[in-house]
Amino acid sequence: MFLFRTVKFRSSSFLTTYKMCSHFSFSKNKTFINGKWVSAKDGKEFPVYNPADGSIVANVPDCTVSELNEAIEGSYDAFKTWKNTTAKERSAILRRLFDLQMKYKDDLARILTLEAGKSLAESVGEISYGASFFEWFSEEARRIYGDIVPSPVKSRQMFFYKQPVGVAGIITPWNFPNAMITRKVGAALAAGCTCVIKPAEDTPLSALAIAQLAEEAKVPPGVINVVTSSRNNTPAIGKGMCEHLKVATISFTGSTAVGKLLLEHSAPFVKRVSLELGGNAPFIVFNSANVSKAVAGAMASKFRNSGQTCVCTNRILVQEDVYDEFCKELTKVMQNQLVVGNGMDSNVTVGPLINENAVKKVNSHVEDALQKGAKLILGGKPHSTGKTFFEPTLLTDIKQNMLICKEETFGPVAGVMKFKSEEEAIEIANSTRSGLAGYFYSEDVSQIWRVAQALEVGMDLIKLNSRIYLNPKGFHVTLR
Ligand code: NAP
Question: According to the UniProt record, what class of enzyme is this (predicted)?
Answer without folding.
Answer: oxidoreductase
